[in-house]
Amino acid sequence: MNKSLKEVEEDIIEEFAEFDEWLDKYEYIIDLGKSLASYPEDKKTDDYLIKGCQSRVWLDAKMENGVLVFNADSDAIITKGIISLLIRIYSGRTPEEILSSDFSVVEKIGLKENLSPTRANGLVSMIQTMKKLASENC
After folding, report:
1. Residue 53: pLDDT band by 50, 70, 90 thresholds?
2. Which of 5, 12, 36, 53 does the annotation list as catalytic?
3. pTM above 0.85, yes or no
4. d(C-alpha 30, C-alpha 84), whole Å
5. Could you confirm whether 53 is annotated as catalytic?
6. pLDDT tens digits, 68-83
7. How many C-beta atoms lie closer than 10 Å to residue 44's C-beta?
8. What sign has the CA pseudo-torsion 136, 82, 32, 10?
9. Distance in angstroms (rounded) separating the CA atoms of residues 34 and 63
10. What does the alpha-carbon distance between residue 28 and residue 15 come to, in Å, rounded to a whole number?
11. CA 87: distance to chain centroid?
12. HSE (CB half, 13 Å, CA atoms) of 20?
């Protein structure tokens, strides 16, 4: 059985708690990005580009059996790791689950305050885009 949204968030909070230093957490985020599924080159267009990110981030979503499945890529390694983390949490969820989430996991792991202001803005843009895609598929 798949884990609930809450269980996945708790897993991530525990994983980040294992690291004492933010440098180690960044390394972990970069490793997450390396595990991201390949993204089709033909979808690396402005239609899929998340606005408001300093790096280029492409995000695609499709409905499969009542859940949204996200796929993404970025031209920056940390950003790719961040979108990978969000996909791990929210891909395979119903639009309603995504829209009812408060996305507080990013605060609980300390991600937002440990990013540069431009990356933090990009994180907010990624979350807003995921919510927008979820609302379009309700």
Report:
1. confident
2. 53
3. yes
4. 9
5. yes
6. 999 999 999 999 999 9
7. 15
8. negative
9. 24
10. 9
11. 4
12. 0
